[in-house]
Amino acid sequence: MHADLSPVIAATTQWLTCAYPASGGALARALCEAQARQAVTVAARLRYPTPMDVALMGVAGPGGSARLDWITGADGTEAADPDKDAWRTWVDEVVASWAACLLTDLELANLAAAVPAEKDPAGHTSSGTPAEFRRLLTPDAQDRRAATLLRHPDLAAPVAELHHAQLVARLDPGRALAA
Prior knowledge:
The chain has about 180 residues and is mostly helical. The protein has helices at about 5-20, 25-45, 50-60, 65-70, 95-105, 105-115, 135, 140-145, 150, 155-160, 165-170; strands spanning about 120, 125.
């Protein structure tokens, strides 16, 4: 994974866990965040498959959470300190939408996680290992309880539907996977 994607992954994960909070205590929050982070990581890998894509995103910026906030109804809350929510500028709408798709559709998540992530210096491609994305791909009952809102297809639908067609097109084996 490209290190330059870490702010996008962190901010988009935070946005998802704020929009669809965990149900339960500290363990549930940690499990929910782990699932969101894994989905966001897979989505970011698909959205920015090459170092050039990452560099271009770094120059242009990921777009922010304004539209996502509006769709989920979080745009009416004014922050007392604008610096407090500066992380929202690093949220990538497409990555959040694709992550929501992956969290609500295990078949799609398995397809996405199997896509080669990047080439290592030797020129070999790597994809996510089952252990790396276990909570996303094979959630147990405790994972599902912790992320009930995050994984609920009807609740996540407004966000997931934004860029679902693009994700399906990206995963179509008949098309090139490079951006």
